Automatic annotation (TrEMBL):
<feature type="region of interest" description="Disordered">
    <location>
        <begin position="53"/>
        <end position="72"/>
    </location>
</feature>
<comment type="similarity">
    <text>Belongs to the CapA family.</text>
</comment>
<protein>
    <submittedName>
        <fullName>Polyglutamate biosynthesis protein</fullName>
    </submittedName>
</protein>
<dbReference type="Pfam" id="PF09587">
    <property type="entry name" value="PGA_cap"/>
</dbReference>
<feature type="compositionally biased region" description="Basic and acidic residues">
    <location>
        <begin position="53"/>
        <end position="63"/>
    </location>
</feature>
<feature type="domain" description="Capsule synthesis protein CapA">
    <location>
        <begin position="26"/>
        <end position="328"/>
    </location>
</feature>
<dbReference type="InterPro" id="IPR052169">
    <property type="entry name" value="CW_Biosynth-Accessory"/>
</dbReference>
<dbReference type="InterPro" id="IPR029052">
    <property type="entry name" value="Metallo-depent_PP-like"/>
</dbReference>
<dbReference type="InterPro" id="IPR019079">
    <property type="entry name" value="Capsule_synth_CapA"/>
</dbReference>
Length: 413
């Protein structure tokens, strides 16, 4: 059944008016979403942490908007929420463990966790479809905390990759779908709410289940740190910059054969904190993922600040998305409070998806919420010029004009 004969079935439920008239789709990527520590204490449910509770009480005493009746599950997304909800797919890096387990990983400087009861309300508020779990905080409360995180995501109906209950679950891709109504059908979730298959008629289910319907999107995830977890936790997808790792990745990403997806994404937590430009070994791995593993989009994160973009052979490498929301102290030089919403616009052609352009909407973390910056804001200019400078060093040009919401534009084809 051709994807082009499914317009009525696929779009009747919560259509995206921005993409409905054409065969184009919006894939939105965010960097580190850290909902633990003080943010967790501000939300309706929170883990038992007297130290974090005292700090949160101080901020609440100075800002009434942080009171429990006002700081709701939608609040961490701030003014970016309408933009996020226009996405056909929304992918994030979840930079915290989701657990009530109280035993942190030993001898680790920072350990983050959020209450499991907060996860679904917060992520569903923005219509998050996918979370990367391969990062340096997912095991902050050891394997027990990771397993509870996985169970909580499964209960919420949110896809994940990079860590899991076993090695296979950590390494295998999350499978998402376009258009969005097909994603909702397969996940049995509409705006976060569970729905039964009977929501769709028998005829509609036959169409939606037919081979070749829609566009499958595969998302893999991995991290190059911490090495200790790579050596001791088999259900954490750790990578190195070695020939052995490349061979393993090639086999993993290319084993689908004739059932290749329409789009392949590699979400990766890599590199050192607070470095403007990725080192050569990271760029080389990104090129390898595209050249030999069929990856279309490299979704990089970990640096804590925005990095440049490289358009490479019609594909895109987002080196570092930056922090999206957290409770961190602001670094004066690297401005880790300034991030972005990164949107890749793709167009369906036959059974594949082609990358058209990247749109970058600068954001700023303010009082534990992410806010979209107006073009007139000086921080919008800072983000724009920084991305222009850093992308230029990677051989990629940023357009001189901006979009209708002040978004930075990079052509991919």
């Amino acid at each position: 059944m051709s994807v082009f004969n499914l317009t009525l079935v696929l779009y009747y439920n919560n259509p995206n008016p921005a993409t409905m008239a054409t065969n184009s789709f919006i894939l939105t990527f965010l960097g580190d979403v850290m909902l633990g520590r003080l943010i967790d204490q501000l939300l309706p449910n929170h883990v038992d942490s007297p130290t974090d509770a005292r700090k949160a009480a101080h901020f609440k005493s100075e800002d009434p908007s942080l009171e429990p009746t006002k700081y709701t599950p939608s609040t961490p997304w701030g003014t970016t929420l309408p933009l996020l909800r226009t996405s056909d797919l929304l992918l994030i890096n979840l930079e915290t463990s989701v657990t009530t387990t109280s035993s942190p990983w030993p001898n680790k400087e920072y350990n983050y966790r959020m209450h499991p009861a907060n996860l679904a309300p917060v992520l569903h508020a923005a219509r998050v479809d996918y979370t990367s779990l391969a990062n340096n905080h997912i095991l902050d409360y050891s394997t027990e905390g990771l397993i509870e995180t996985v169970w909580t995501l499964k209960e919420a109906g949110i896809s994940f990759a990079g860590a899991g209950e076993n090695t296979d679950e950590a390494y295998k891709p999350a499978i998402l779908y376009l258009p969005r109504s097909l994603q909702e059908y397969h996940s049995r979730r509409v705006d976060g709410e569970k729905v039964l298959s009977t929501r769709w008629s028998q005829q509609e289910r036959e169409v939606l289940d037919a081979p070749g319907t829609g566009y499958p999107v595969y998302v893999y995830s991995a991290s190059d740190h911490p090495q200790e977890w790579g050596a001791t936790v088999p259900n954490f997808h750790f990578i190195e910059y070695s020939p052995a790792t490349r061979e393993r990745l090639r086999k993993l990403l290319m084993r689908n054969g004739s059932a290749a997806p329409a789009l392949k994404i590699f979400s990766v937590h890599w590199g050192s904190n607070y470095k403007w430009c990725p080192p050569d070994h990271i760029r080389s791995l990104a090129h390898f993922l595209i050249d030999e593993c069929g990856v279309d989009i490299v979704h990089g994160h970990s640096s804590h600040h925005v990095q440049g973009v490289e358009v490479y052979r019609g594909k895109v490498i987002i080196c570092g998305c930056g922090d999206f929301v957290d409770d961190y102290v602001v670094h004066e030089k690297y401005r880790n409070d300034l991030g972005a919403v990164w949107r890749v616009i793709v167009t369906g052609e036959a059974k594949s998806l082609v990358l058209d352009r990247l749109e970058i909407f600068p954001t700023r973390i303010d009082q534990f919420r992410a806010n979209q910056l107006d073009k007139s804001d000086k921080d919008h200019e800072w983000v724009t010029e920084k991305i222009r400078e850093l992308s230029g060093k990677l051989g990629t040009a940023v357009r001189n004009d901006t979009g209708d919401q002040g978004q930075i534009l990079i052509d991919i084809r």
